Every structure is written in C-alpha cells, then in structure tokens.
C-alpha cells in the first residue's frame, strides 16, 4: 500500500450539488453496492485507460503521487519516524479500493462512488476532471450524477481526496467510460389502446426508475380515475414493478363507487408513498379528493371534500407535509371560486384551508384557482394558479398568474400577481422548483374577442421571494399553444411540455428545453399521432429523465399515452 503525504488542498465546497446516499431513497448499507472496478488496465496510459503507475494499489487506482506524475519531496519514506529524531511521526492518511457502480455509464442516472480510507481521515472531496463537486465525511460514499451525453461522454476522471486533521491528504482516481444518448431522446413510449371508450393521462411523477401516471378512463358511462405505475421499460402489465387500479377498486367512500372522479396531480415522497389529488363529481357537484397510497399502490387514507371544492395540484415537503392547491366555490350561476390551499400531515391531520381572494371583491364577482404546487430548495412551497382582475381603464376582466409562498403547515409569507407585462391575459398551469427559485408556465393572450389573437406559451422564472429571477419567455408557435407541464433537468435547463395547434394537423404534443428568455429552443419531441388528430401533453416530471403523459387520438377516440425521455 502506498501512503502519501500531500500538502493541503484548496477545497471548493459544492455539497449542494451532490449528496451521499443511495438511489431510490434506500439506505446505502442495504444497497449491496458492487465493488467492481471501472474498466482500466493496470499500467496502461492515455485518456480513458484509467492510467496507473507502478505505485498503483489496485486496478484503475492511482495514489496521489501517481496521479500527479511526481513523488519527489512528498512521499513518506521514513517508515513512520521523524528523520531528525527517530521518534514516531504523524503518518499521512491512505485511501484504497476506489470503485464506481455502475463501472460504465450507459444511461443517465446516479453513479455511486465507494472507497476505503484510513481511520484518521476525517473529510473527503469528490472531483470530476479535477474540479471539486462534493465534500463529505471520509469513508462515506459519494453520488456522482451522470446527466447527459454532452456533459459526460466519453467519460469522467473521478478522484477522491481524503484528509486528516493535520491537513495531510491522500488521493485515488478512476475513469468511468460513458456512452449516453442525446438529451431528449426517447427511453420508452406507451400508448394504451382499447382503454375504455376513451382515456387520457393527466398527471405524472417519477418514482426512482419507475414512473407513476394518473388519468381517467370512460367506461360504462362512468369516469374512472386510474392510477398506474410503469416500470423502467414502460410496462405495467405482467411486471413486478408495474400495476394499475381504478378508483372504484380502492375507494372506501360509497358515493365514489358510482360517482365520477378525475385525478389532476401526483407526488411521491422519499419513502415511495404516492399522493394523488383531483375532483370528484357526486350528484352533479364538484368535491375535492385527496388520497395517499403506499409504494405498492395500497390505499392508506383518502379525503373527499365538501360540495363546491376542487383540487388541482399537490406537492410533498421533506417532513411529509402534503400541500394541495385548488379552490372553494363561493357563488353559483355563474360559479365563482376562491383559491384554496390545504395541508395534510402524513397521518391525515388537516391544516387550513388558506383562502386567497381579491379583498376588494365584496360581491364575489372574480374567481381565483390554484393549479400547481412546487416544493422549493429551501423547503418553502410555491402554490401557483390564475386569478381574474378588473381593469378600471378598460372596464374588463383579465386573467393573471398568481403565486403564493408558504412555509410550515400553510403559513403564507409572500404573494405575487402578474402585471400582464407580456399580453393582457396570462395564466399559470404548471410549476416546478428551479435553481433560481420556481419556474412557471401557462399561456399569454391578447384580447380574446379578436380571432387572430391566439394563446402562446408563457414561461416565467421567479426567486423564492417572488422577485423576477429571469425575464419571462413568450414562445411563438404556429397557432394556439399552452404549457401544461414544466420541470428542470439535472443541469438546470427548463423542460416544457405543451399542446400546440399546428394548422391542419390539429393539436400536437411538444416537449422542448430552454435556458432563459433569449436562448434557442431545443426541441425534444413534436408528436403528431398516426391518426393526425388531437395529441396533447398534459403532465411532465423531470430529474435525470423526464416522464410525460397526455392523450393521443386513435381512430377518433382519445387514448392515454405515457413516455420517458432523457432530460
């Protein structure tokens, strides 16, 4: 074993980028991580070969001196004694058995980096091509993110540096080859034919390697809420990870056995528990619905709200608090709604609702609707939606986006309403956490009574204090277009899922990536189904990959479609 004394290394702390742990929320101790070394031939040289020298302590492993190509003046050759007195000196730390799992990266996702370090090592850094990207306690595994072909191909030189309390260091390096397909490329697409008289996906959430989809099926004159888990190949039929169920099977509410239920939003917590929210129609009246399921799909509890309520968005905080965005009806004929936010504990304990409305709307003339929930990096929660505002100049009502920031169990701390800076109407239908705070999307439109004024996709980036983090982006499309899903990938790009009307082709399903208001649009998908009918993206969730769902017209009927692409 080569033990090497190194001068203190300047550390750039970037622990926020990577955190020790195991994929899918499992304990590292229970992961049975492979100790197979990354591909490397001892004694070979050149990039990609996992270069080693005669001082290597294992396949593909380099000591700090071998890595730098120089050992003069730094290698401890005194046998652990002081050259001047012969007394024992402080030996430097050591590191060995550096390995990565998987040894080669053929798909985006986390790589677990493991190693052994001497007992006196107290801190470790993970470096990617010489740049510190994470810091943690010595001996704890690191997670290295393989995020895209352009970033990771053809491979990465990974190094771990450990240090002791005196600042002495030891270093080992390994090369992980990478062959990742391009961002936006398809992993799988599943169209659900013969899925009732018609069907449609409406919401999606990532669940480790799997994806959860929620939607509706029309069968025997009943709208059936349906929950499905797709495995990593896009299959839910006859697979150990996949399953499907409809609300009449899981509900314990007698009125829902024969009532209609649609699911509008999904979230998955750190333990794999699933929360689905939507709106039921019971005896012709809307009622909000919230259900919590175990990771296998078994119902834990459900809530059917009172008459005149709706639920459209949800998110789960780190402590398990479940935020639900929707509305409460305050007038009928025509219906008028106030925006409402409910919070539930994992045990079903309820907090709220917090009601947001125009305080000057004493006659209940203007509506506000909650549409989306985003749990932010700080732990605060953004609830986004759309409200009506009255203009005393034109004596007209306009639609405007609205965002509320919460902390704890529903304490509202900030609020923001769009000024209509892009067009006189704008809406928010989707929200997601972003490095800047929160990203929002919907549509903007000028005076609706002019046929030439088509809705266009509008994207906004706000900080957690709801200040403008980036200029808004108005995406020009051939005809009418609306964003129904938004997310951010592991590299910080904004991914947009939209429905775009393209002349004679009807509605088409679009997914694309942007950085800001001025960056080029990078098209990931423009899907016009085989029937050339109405094809729509209605939900999107992103991390390493992006899962999406919606509907595709097949022989004149809408059918549920679900897919996974590389983010």
UniProtKB/TrEMBL annotation:
This is Delta-60 repeat domain-containing protein. The keyword Signal applies. Transmembrane segments: none annotated. Residues 42-101 are annotated as: Disordered. Residues 52-64, 73-88 have a biased composition (Low complexity). Residues 1-25 form the signal peptide. It comes from the Bacteria. Keywords: Signal. InterPro entries: Gal_Oxase/kelch_b-propeller (IPR011043), Kelch-typ_b-propeller (IPR015915).
């Amino acid at each position: 074993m080569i033990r090497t004394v190194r001068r203190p290394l300047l550390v750039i702390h970037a622990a926020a980028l990577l955190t020790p742990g195991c994929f899918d929320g499992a304990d590292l101790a229970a992961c049975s991580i492979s100790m197979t070394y990354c591909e490397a031939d001892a004694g070979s040289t050149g990039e990609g070969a996992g270069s080693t020298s005669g001082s290597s302590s294992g396949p593909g492993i380099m000591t700090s001196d071998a890595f730098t190509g120089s050992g003069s003046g730094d290698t401890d050759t005194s046998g652990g004694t002081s050259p001047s007195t012969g007394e024992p000196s402080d030996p430097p730390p050591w590191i060995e058995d550096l390995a990565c799992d998987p040894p080669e990266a053929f798909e985006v996702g986390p790589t677990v980096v493991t190693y052994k370090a001497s007992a006196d090592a107290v801190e470790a850094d993970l470096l990617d091509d010489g740049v510190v990207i994470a810091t943690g306690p010595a001996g704890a595994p690191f997670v290295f993110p393989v995020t895209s072909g352009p970033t990771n191909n053809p491979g990465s030189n990974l190094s771990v540096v450990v240090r002791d309390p005196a600042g002495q260091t030891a270093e080992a390096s390994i090369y992980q080859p990478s062959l990742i397909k391009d961002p936006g490329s398809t992993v799988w697409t599943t169209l659900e034919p013969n899925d009732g008289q018609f069907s449609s996906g409406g919401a999606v959430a990532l669940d480790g390697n799997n994806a959860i989809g929620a939607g509706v099926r029309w069968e025997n004159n009943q709208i059936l809420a349906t929950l499905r888990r797709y495995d990593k190949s896009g299959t839910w039929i006859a697979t150990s990870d996949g399953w499907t169920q409809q609300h009449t099977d899981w509900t314990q509410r007698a009125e829902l056995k024969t009532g209609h239920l649609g699911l509008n939003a999904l979230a998955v917590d750190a333990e794999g528990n699933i929360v689905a929210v939507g709106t039921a129609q019971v005896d012709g009246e809307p009622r909000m619905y919230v259900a919590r399921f175990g990771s296998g799909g078994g119902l834990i509890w459900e809530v059917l709200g009172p008459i005149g309520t709706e639920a459209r968005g949800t998110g789960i905080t780190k402590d398990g608090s479940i935020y639900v965005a929707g509305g409460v009806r305050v007038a009928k004929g025509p219906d008028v709604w106030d925006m409402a936010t409910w919070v539930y504990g994992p045990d079903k304990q309820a907090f709220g609702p917090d009601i947001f409305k125009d305080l000057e709307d004493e006659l209940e003339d203007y509506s506000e609707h909650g549409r989306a929930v985003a749990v932010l990096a700080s732990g605060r929660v953004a609830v986004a939606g759309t409200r009506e505002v009255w203009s005393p100049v034109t004596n007209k009502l306009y639609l405007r986006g609205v965002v509320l920031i919460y902390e704890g169990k529903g304490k509202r701390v900030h609020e923001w309403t769009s000024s209509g800076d892009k067009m006189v109407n704008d809406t928010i239908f989707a929200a997601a956490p972003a490095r800047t705070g929160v990203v929002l999307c919907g549509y903007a439109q000028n005076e609706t009574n002019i046929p030439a004024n088509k809705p266009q996709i509008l994207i906004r980036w706000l900080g957690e204090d709801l200040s403008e983090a980036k200029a808004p982006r108005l995406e020009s499309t051939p005809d009418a277009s609306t964003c129904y899903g938004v997310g951010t990938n592991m590299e910080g790009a904004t991914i947009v899922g939209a429905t775009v009307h393209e002349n004679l082709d009807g509605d088409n399903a679009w997914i694309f990536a942007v950085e800001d208001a001025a960056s080029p649009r990078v098209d990931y998908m423009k899907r016009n189904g085989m029937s050339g009918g109405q094809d729509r993206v209605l939900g999107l969730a992103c991390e390493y990959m992006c899962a999406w769902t919606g509907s595709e017209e097949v022989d004149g009927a809408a059918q549920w479609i679900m897919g996974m692409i590389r983010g």
